[in-house]
C-alpha cells in the first residue's frame, strides 16, 4: 500500500513572510529595528528544498547595546508588578500562541526542516504549555520564593533544533520571575522568534521586557561579554558552552548551561520489546535525531541482541523520509548543509573504524539536506561514534551482559543528560535510575517532557535546570546578596592579601607554641597524613604572635585527597539519610564536649574576643545540628505530568566537592560549608582558611571519634591559590565552592571548564557567617545537590485505569 501525499498548506505562512518583505530583524524595546547604513544580511533557507525564505539581519554591537539598555530600563517596573499582572501577560502570550499555533508550526517546519507532524503536535503545544505553566509561577512567586529576587537582565542564546520550544524554555521562566530578556536565536532558525515578538506586541507586553537580536555566533559573544547582562542561559553544543563559561568567568553573571548528550537507551531481556522498539523510534529518529537528549546509544542485553536489532531494522524500514510539509512523513530535513556534512563525516569515519552500517536504501529525496535513519552495529563503548554527539538520526548499538555492565557502559561518557531504561522489573528499573549519571531518566518511555518537570544535565551536559521549580531558581538570587559589601582584601586571601600576609611564612615571635613539634598534618582518607612536600607553614595571629604550624599541602596532596573522596563518594551517597544525620549529630556532640578548647584556639588564632570565639563554636555546633536535621528532609518532589504515571524529582548528591573556605570566622565558615555538603551525601576535599586553619586541623580528632567514614571529609592545609588551582582543574572534582577574593573566583570559574564542574563563588563579598539568613539554609542544600527527574509510567488495564 502506498501513502498518498498529505501536504500542509503553507500559503498563510508564505503570506506572513511576504508581508515582512522576507526580512527578519532584531526586535528591541517593543519594535522591529530598521537596520542602519550598509547592513549585513544572511539568507534564511528551507533546508528541505534549499529555497531562500528571506534574509536575516546581522545585528551589530550597537543593536546589542540598545537591546540590553531597553531590557535594563524595563526591568525594575516589570519585577515590581504584582505576580497577578505578570501572570496575565504570560497567560495572554499563551492564548495568542494557541491562536497562531498553525502558523507557528508551518513556519517552524519551513525554517528548520522538521516534520509538520512534530512541529504541530509537539513543539508548538509544548512551547505554549510552558508559558501556561509559568503564568502560574508568576502568580505564586511571592509565596513560593520569599527572600529571592530576579537577577535583572537575562541574556539567552538558543540553538536551532527546537527554535520555538527553546525560546519558551528560556523566556517563560525569566519573565515569570521578573527578569527581562535579550534573546538570540540560532542563525539558521529565526522565523518563529519573529512571530513570537509580534505576539508580545499583541499581548501588550511592556516595551523592553522581551528583546530579540538576530545574528550569528558573534552576536551571541556580544551578549556574553556585555556588562549589562546579569544572567546567561545557553543551550547548544558543549564546546560553545565551555567557551561561554570561560568568557564570562569572573564577570559575576549567573550561568546555566544545557549542553550535549550521548544518552543511553537500555533494553533488558525482560522488556516489552515491541514498546521498546517503538520508544526507540522516538528516542533517536524524532526531529531527525537533532535532539540533545536523543537516545543515541542503544544498550541491549546480549540474550536478545539479535532479535531486538532485527525487529528494529524492520521497523526502521517503515519510516518515511521526505518533504517535512507532508503530514505522513516521519523524518524531515536536517537543519543545514553544515550539519548534514558533519553527520556524514562522523558516520563514514565510524564505518572506516569498523562499524557495520544499516540504512534504508534510497530513503531520501535527492535534493535538500536529508540523511537517512541509520543503525550502526559492531560498535565498542569507547569508539568515537559512541562517545561524540552526532546530532543526527544515527544509532550506535552496543550489547551488555548484566545490570552492572549496563550501568558501567551507560556512565562511560563525559555527558550525563538523559537515559532510558526498559524492563518489566520495576525493582530493577528503580535501582538503575539512581545509578545512571543523568539529569533525566525515562523508565519504559522516552523523550517525555513537561514544563512542571525539570530538565538538565549532569557532568559535561551542563548545569542548571529548565522547567520545574528548580528551573525557576535559575533566574533568582537570594535577596540578602545585594546587602553584602566587599570584604577587605586581607581577609579574603586575594593576590593582594597574599602579599600583605607574607608574614605567614616569615619570622614571628613564638607565642605559646609548645616546643614539642605539633605541626598539624593533612587529613586524607580518614588518616592524618604528612604533606607530600614536607614543608610547613607558620600560623601567626593578627597581632603577630606565632600560634602554630600546619603542613603546606601541594598538588599531590590534593590529588590524594580527591582520590580518597572519589573512593568514598559512592558509599556515602548510598548511606541512608538517617545514617548521615546520625553522624552529623555525633560530630556536633563530640565538638560540644571540646567547645572550650576550640574557643580558646579561635581566640588565640584570630585575636577575637573570648565571647566571639565562644559564639563561633556554639554556632558551629548549632549548624551541625541544623544539617543533621536536614539530611532526611531535603526531599525532592513527585510531579504529575500529563501521562499515566509520575515523575520523581530526586535531589541527588553531586559527588566529589571541593570546598575552599574563607578567612572570616574561620571555624564557623568551615563548618558551614562542610556540613551541608556531607549532609547531602557528597564527599569533600576542604581547604580551610589559609590564615587561620588551626581549628580545622584540631577538628581531625573530632572526626576520628565520630564514625565519619574515611575519605568523606578530606582536609588539606596550605596556600589557598596553589591548592585551589589543582582542585579547580581536577577532573575528579564535580563541584567547587570558592569563598574568596574576586580574582580567585574568576580563576575558579575559568578553570572549571575542564570537566564543566559546577562552581559557586562569592566574588569577595563578605558574608556574616553568624547570620543564619546568609550562612545556612536551602540555598546551601540546593548547591550541594542536583535534581534528577525519573519518569515512571504505570498502568496495565486497557481502560486507562478508569474502571476502579
Ligand atoms: P552552537 O553551540 O554553536 O550554537 C548554539 C547557539 O550558540 C547558537 O545560537 C549560536 O549562534 C550561538 N553561538 C555560537 N558561537 C557562540 C559564541 N562564541 N558565543 C555565544 N554564542 C554563540 O551549535 P551549532 O549550531 O554550531 O551546532 C554545532 C553542533 O553542536 C551540532 O552539530 C550539535 O552536535 C551540537 N548542538 C547541540 C545542541 C544541544 O542542545 N545539545 C543544540 C545545537 C547544536 P549561531 O548558530 O547563530 O552561530
TrEMBL record:
It comes from Micavibrio aeruginosavorus (strain ARL-13). InterPro entries: Ald_DH/histidinol_DH (IPR016161), Ald_DH_C (IPR016163), Ald_DH_CS_GLU (IPR029510), Ald_DH_N (IPR016162), Aldehyde_DH (IPR011408), Aldehyde_DH_dom (IPR015590). This is Aldehyde dehydrogenase domain protein. The keyword Oxidoreductase applies. Keywords: Oxidoreductase. Belongs to the aldehyde dehydrogenase family. Residues 38-477, 537-759 form the Aldehyde dehydrogenase domain. One of its GO terms (molecular function) is oxidoreductase activity, acting on the aldehyde or oxo group of donors, NAD or NADP as acceptor. The keyword Oxidoreductase applies. The active site is at 258. Pfam families: Aldedh.
Amino acid at each position: 500500500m502506498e501513502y498518498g501525499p498529505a501536504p500542509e498548506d503553507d500559503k498563510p505562512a508564505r503570506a506572513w513572510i511576504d508581508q515582512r518583505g522576507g526580512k527578519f530583524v532584531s526586535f528591541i524595546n517593543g519594535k522591529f529595528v530598521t537596520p542602519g547604513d550598509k547592513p549585513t544580511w544572511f539568507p534564511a533557507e528551507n533546508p528541505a528544498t534549499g529555497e531562500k525564505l528571506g534574509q536575516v539581519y546581522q545585528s551589530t554591537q550597537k543593536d546589542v547595546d540598545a537591546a540590553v539598555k531597553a531590557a535594563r530600563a524595563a526591568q525594575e517596573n516589570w519585577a515590581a508588578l504584582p505576580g497577578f499582572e505578570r501572570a496575565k501577560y504570560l497567560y495572554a502570550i499563551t492564548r495568542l500562541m494557541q491562536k497562531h499555533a498553525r502558523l507557528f508550526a508551518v513556519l517552524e517546519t519551513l525554517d528548520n526542516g522538521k516534520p509538520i507532524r512534530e512541529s504541530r503536535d509537539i513543539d508548538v503545544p509544548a512551547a505554549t504549555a510552558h508559558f501556561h505553566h509559568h503564568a502560574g509561577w508568576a502568580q505564586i512567586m511571592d509565596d513560593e520564593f520569599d527572600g529571592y529576587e530576579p537577577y535583572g537582565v537575562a541574556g539567552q542564546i538558543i540553538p536551532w533544533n527546537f527554535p520555538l520550544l527553546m525560546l519558551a524554555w528560556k523566556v517563560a521562566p525569566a519573565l515569570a520571575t521578573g527578569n527581562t530578556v535579550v534573546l538570540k536565536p540560532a542563525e539558521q532558525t529565526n522565523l518563529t522568534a519573529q512571530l513570537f515578538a509580534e505576539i508580545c506586541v499583541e499581548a501588550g507586553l511592556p516595551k523592553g521586557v522581551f528583546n530579540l537580536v538576530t545574528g550569528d555566533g558573534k552576536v551571541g559573544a556580544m551578549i556574553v561579554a556585555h556588562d549589562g547582562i546579569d544572567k546567561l542561559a545557553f543551550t547548544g553544543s558543549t564546546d560553545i558552552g565551555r567557551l561561554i563559561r570561560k568568557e564570562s568567568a569572573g564577570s559575576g553573571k549567573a550561568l546555566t548551561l544545557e549542553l550535549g548528550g550521548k544518552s543511553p537507551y537500555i533494553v533488558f531481556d525482560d522488556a516489552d520489546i515491541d514498546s521498546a522498539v517503538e520508544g526507540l523510534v522516538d528516542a533517536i529518529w524524532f526531529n531527525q535525531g537533532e535532539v540533545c537528549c536523543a537516545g543515541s546509544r542503544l544498550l541491549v542485553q546480549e540474550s536478545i541482541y539479535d532479535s531486538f536489532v532485527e525487529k528494529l531494522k524492520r521497523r526502521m524500514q517503515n519510516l518515511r523520509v521526505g518533504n517535512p510539509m507532508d503530514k505522513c512523513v516521519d523524518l524531515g530535513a536536517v537543519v543545514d548543509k553544515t550539519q548534514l556534512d558533519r553527520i556524514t563525516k562522523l558516520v563514514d569515519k565510524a564505518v572506516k573504524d569498523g562499524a557495520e552500517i544499516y540504512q534504508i536504501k534510497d530513503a531520501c529525496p535527492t535534493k535538500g539536506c536529508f540523511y537517512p535513519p541509520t543503525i550502526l552495529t559492531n560498535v565498542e563503548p569507547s569508539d568515537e561514534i559512541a562517545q561524540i554527539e552526532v546530532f543526527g538520526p544515527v544509532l550506535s548499538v552496543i550489547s551488555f551482559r548484566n545490570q552492572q555492565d549496563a550501568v558501567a557502559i551507560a556512565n562511560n561518557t563525559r555527558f550525563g543528560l538523559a537515559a532510558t531504561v526498559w524492563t518489566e522489573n520495576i525493582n530493577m528499573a528503580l535501582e538503575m535510575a539512581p545509578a545512571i549519571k543523568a539529569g533525566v531518566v525515562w523508565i519504559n518511555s522516552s523523550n517525555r517532557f513537561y514544563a512542571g518537570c525539570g530538565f538538565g544535565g549532569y557532568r559535561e551536559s551542563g548545569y542548571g535546570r529548565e522547567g520545574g521549580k528548580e528551573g525557576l531558581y535559575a533566574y533568582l538570587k537570594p535577596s540578602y546578596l545585594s546587602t553584602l559589601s566587599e570584604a577587605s582584601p586581607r581577609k579574603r586571601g586575594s593576590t593582594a592579601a597574599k602579599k600583605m600576609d607574607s608574614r605567614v611564612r616569615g619570622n614571628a615571635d613564638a607565642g605559646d607554641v609548645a616546643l614539642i613539634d605539633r605541626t598539624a598534618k593533612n587529613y586524607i582518607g580518614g588518616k592524618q597524613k604528612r604533606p607530600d612536600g614536607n614543608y610547613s607553614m607558620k600560623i601567626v595571629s593578627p597581632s603577630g604572635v606565632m600560634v602554630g604550624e600546619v603542613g603546606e599541602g601541594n598538588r599531590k596532596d590534593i590529588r590524594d585527597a580527591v582520590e580518597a573522596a572519589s573512593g568514598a563518594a559512592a558509599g556515602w551517597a548510598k548511606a541512608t539519610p538517617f545514617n548521615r544525620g546520625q553522624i552529623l549529630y555525633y560530630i556536633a556532640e563530640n565538638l560540644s564536649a571540646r567547645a572550650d578548647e576550640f574557643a580558646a584556639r579561635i581566640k588565640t588564632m584570630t585575636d577575637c574576643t573570648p565571647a566571639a570565639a565562644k559564639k563561633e563554636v556554639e554556632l558551629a555546633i548549632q549548624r551541625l545540628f541544623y544539617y543533621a536535621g536536614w539530611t532526611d528532609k531535603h526531599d525532592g518532589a513527585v510531579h504529575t505530568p500529563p501521562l499515566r504515571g509520575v515523575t520523581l524529582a530526586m535531589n541527588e548528591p553531586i559527588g566529589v566537592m571541593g570546598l575552599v573556605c574563607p578567612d572570616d570566622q574561620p571555624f564557623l565558615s568551615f563548618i558551614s560549608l562542610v556540613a551541608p555538603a556531607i549532609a547531602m551525601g557528597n564527599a569533600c576535599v576542604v581547604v580551610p582558611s589559609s590564615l587561620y586553619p588551626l581549628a580545622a586541623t584540631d577538628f581531625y580528632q573530632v572526626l576520628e571519634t565520630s564514625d565519619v567514614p574515611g575519605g568523606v571529609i578530606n582536609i588539606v592545609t596550605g596556600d589557598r591559590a596553589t591548592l585551589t588551582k589543582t582542585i579547580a582543574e581536577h577532573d575528579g572534582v564535580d563541584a567547587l565552592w570558592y569563598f574568596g577574593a574576586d580574582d580567585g573566583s574568576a580563576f575558579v570559574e575559568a578553570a572549571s571548564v575542564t570537566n564543566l564542574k559546577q562552581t559557586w563563588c562569592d566574588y569577595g563579598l563578605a558574608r556574616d557567617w553568624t547570620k543564619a539568613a546568609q550562612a545556612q539554609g536551602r540555598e546551601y542544600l540546593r548547591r550541594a545537590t542536583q535534581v534528577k527527574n525519573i519518569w515512571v509510567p504505570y498502568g496495565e488495564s486497557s481502560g486507562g485505569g478508569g474502571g476502579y
